Amino acid sequence: MRHGDKINNLGRTTAHRKALLSNLACQLIEHKRITTTLAKAKTLRTYVEPMITKSKKDTVNNRRLVFAKLQDKEAIKELFGVISDKVADRPGGYTRIIKLQPRVGDAADMAMIELVDFNTIYTKEAKATGAKKTRRSRGGSKATKAATASNEQAPVTEETPATPETPETPATEEQA
User: Fold this and answer.
1) pLDDT tens digits, residue range 113-170?
2) Phi-psi bin for 159: left (phi > 0), alpha (psi -120 to 50), beta?
3) CA separation (Å) from 143 to 67, 134, 135, 154?
4) Alpha carbon distances (Å) from 48 to 19, 66, 84, 168
5) By CB atoms within 10 Å of each CB, which of 20, 82, 103, 163 scores lowest?
6) Concatenated DSSP letters for 97-162?
């Protein structure tokens, strides 16, 4: 029985698992979204979220604690710069795991893990800028049908020219 064994070992030794999670965390910080297996994504979430919480307070000690796990200066700069600014007001839950199709080769459960504040599809700003689209049934009310019919007919009559114009290019060729 595995009572109290909450660590998913991912079938690796301790050193291999630490290196794997460090590399996955660096790639997640750099690219803001990565695709991996579901088990690795769930383990990565518990690994990277405390680091993002530490990055909210930019102190030398916090940088050293995070660098001890990541070992990548560029990832540290990105984490304590861009990412910490975006997640400053968020109390937790910095990552999102989305399940994907199984992998073709071995049918492993795949997932995409991403930083929540960097996805423009789900943010409030993206929803506010886009026009509100609602699904309507095919049979609308009579008032809306009359309004759309009058709007469609008005521009058509204004755009139609009163006298048809003759093409000028054939006339110039005949004169020459």
Assistant:
1) 999 998 877 766 655 665 566 676 676 566 555 555 555 555 554 555 555 555 555 5
2) alpha
3) 65, 18, 18, 17
4) 13, 10, 13, 70
5) 163
6) EEE-PPPTTT---EEEEEEGGG-SSSSHHHHHHSPP-----SS--HHHHHHHHHHHHHHHHHHS-S
Identify the helix (H) or strand (E) that includes residue 75.
helix 73-78
| Nearest to 109, CA basis, from 8, 40, 23 | 40
Tokens representing 43 are: 């383990």
Cβ atoms within 10 Å of 36's Cβ, excluding its own: 21
Distance of alpha carbon 89 from alpha carbon 56, whole angstroms? 9
Per the document, the length of the chain is 176
Amino acid letter for position 131: A
Domain boundaries, the chain: 14-129
CATH superfamily of 14-129: Ribosomal protein L17 (3.90.1030.10)
Q: Phi, psi (5° rounding) for residue 98?
A: -115, 125
Are 27 and 46 a contacting pair, CB within 8 Å? no
Q: Is the pTM of this model over 0.85?
A: no
What one-letter code names the amino acid at 132? K
